[in-house]
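Today's session is about reading a structure prediction critically. Students often jump straight to the picture, but the first step is always the sequence itself: look for stretches that repeat, for charged clusters, for runs of hydrophobic residues. Only then move on to the predicted structure, which in these notes is written as discrete structure tokens rather than atom positions. Here is the chain we will use throughout the hour.
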Amino acid sequence: MKKLLIVEGNLSEENNKFSAEGIQTHTESLKDSLYYYTKDLQFDVINPSSDKSLESTKNKLSIYDGLIWGGSSLNIYNDTPEIRRQIGFMKECLKKVRNILAICWGMQVAVTAAGGEVKKADDYHIGIANEIIINENGLTHPIYKDKEKIFNSPAFNFDEVRTLPRNAVCLASNKINKVQSIYFKVNNNNVWGLQYHPEITYEKMISLIEFRKDRLIKSRKVFESEKDVEKHILFIKKEILKANKQKRMVELRNWLNYLN
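Below is the predicted structure for this chain, in token form.
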């Protein structure tokens, strides 16, 4: 049985709002998606922003076969105490955890902790990333075994990696983000990073868009009106008809297999 640590990137307040709306937390989504491939897994969960058990978890990081750090609505350049706690915890993980899968916010935290830079992107993904292209480095990396060279994926991000950590390699890109996935090593520990969300369904992405509708219109100014939001949701619903669950999540399968 593999023992995994899941790191919850969202603040507890955000997760409480998710639950009140009937939306899975990102940790719940991760568990469901990983269990699709195998039930032979044991999970611990930590939220570095608020959990009082953080120090004791730091002391036992080496017991885990792998760590998955999921998404969040935070922006790393805001430099709040909660974000600094996450970066500090990631630095400890980079020292002690052999295999790390860092997804979206998780990748941004890993990049920052390893000396790279994340900034606000010029463009954004709202529920979906189109035409992610695996480059020559990615085609030979185990994370993309059996993955189509060009693919769409659930995604939701306003920020992007601008400067890679030392010795990091970009594995895939699209028109919105030059860095859609990366690989690097720290202290002989492997970090696989994804800017998109193979573990989240398009249906959940639609729920998140509806949940954040007012913010997307008034604060983020991504959409001009609710009509524009509905039009974008219809676009994602068309993708649902074409999408294949196993193809969408193959990166998770490949990471689990890499642990064996």
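Discussion point for the tutorial: The CA atoms of residues 62 and 142 lie 23 Å apart.
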